[in-house]
């Protein structure tokens, strides 16, 4: 259930009530498009109270499908804000998000939106340390908000990037600033840590540049753990949108040297397709392949193991597979 306000010929979302922390903002309420999230919409405290107070008697209610309805205040479900918000979907109609709309939503882990948001409020994700996944749909021919969103999200981030060329799985390492006092000069120096800030600069104006992203691979090799590096390598090889051959070779060289760790990471994916793709595309060394079979067996993944065994019989026709109990 959404609280909303009509502004001219469009709708502004003021908040949400319900029992499920997974929210899908509707494209329309009645016949009018939903174009805005108000400041502090999913936060709590004085900012939210002030915003609702300014809306006054213009506040209306609608259900999850965007159909206006009336309900007694005593029958209203609890407010979804801060720790009750888990993930959120914003439709392509959204053009503006107010300041601190998700302030202190520390349980928010996943955001899905479109790149056509042209006004991203300041402090949008302040206190949202739990966000790890961002799905962004790129709208061709327009200004993209992706760069602004990444600047707000400084933690380790996994991005599904959807565009007209296909899907790309991207990893953005963590970045953080530290203020260091330089006593003799009586100044405060800002030091940036992690290579995540460089990955967040891979843009030409607001358009994401895959070649700039891939060119940074030497930095992540020396600054990030295998878990993060292997995830980036798997994502780019599995979804190679605009992947130049010179960068592909570097990723494949890394995968060859860290195959076991990459296979373990791929198996942890909820979708087994990545693990099976790895076996099909790069599991040509029998020792590596048998290691994948052991992983699937140890993790009790019979649906994956059966496919691997069929592929193994086809690919490796000599010798016998030895199992250890």
Label this structure with key terms.
alpha/beta; 325 residues; 8-stranded mixed β-sheet; 6-stranded mixed β-sheet; 33% helix; 24% strand; globular
Structure commentary:
- This protein is α/β, with parallel strands linked by helices and 325 residues long.
- It has a domain at 274-325.
- The chain has 11 helices and 18 strands.
- Strands 1, 2, 4, 5, 6, 7, 9 and 11 form an 8-stranded mixed sheet that branches.
- A hairpin with a 4-residue loop joins strand 15 and strand 16 (187-193).
- The longest helix is centred in the C-terminal third of the chain and has 14 residues, at 302-315.
- The radius of gyration is 24 Å and the shape is globular.
- The termini are far apart.
- The mean pLDDT is 92.
- Pfam families: LRR_5.
- This is Leucine-rich repeat domain-containing protein.
- It comes from Lacrimispora saccharolytica (strain ATCC 35040 / DSM 2544 / NRCC 2533 / WM1).
- InterPro entries: LRR_5, LRR_dom_sf.
Provide the fold topology.
Layout: E1 2-7, E2 10-16, E3 22-24, E4 28-29, E5 32-37, H1 46-55, E6 60-62, E7 68-69, E8 87-89, E9 96-97, E10 110-114, E11 119-120, E12 133-137, H2 146-152, E13 157-163, E14 166-172, E15 176-182, E16 187-193, H3 196-199, E17 203-204, E18 207-208, H4 210-215, H5 217-223, H6 226-238, H7 245-257, H8 259-267, H9 273-282, H10 286-298, H11 302-315
Parallel strand pairs: 2-5, 3-8, 5-9, 8-10, 9-11, 10-12, 12-13
Antiparallel strand pairs: 1-2, 1-6, 4-5, 6-7, 13-14, 15-16, 17-18
Helix pairs in contact: 6-7, 6-8, 8-10, 9-11, 10-11
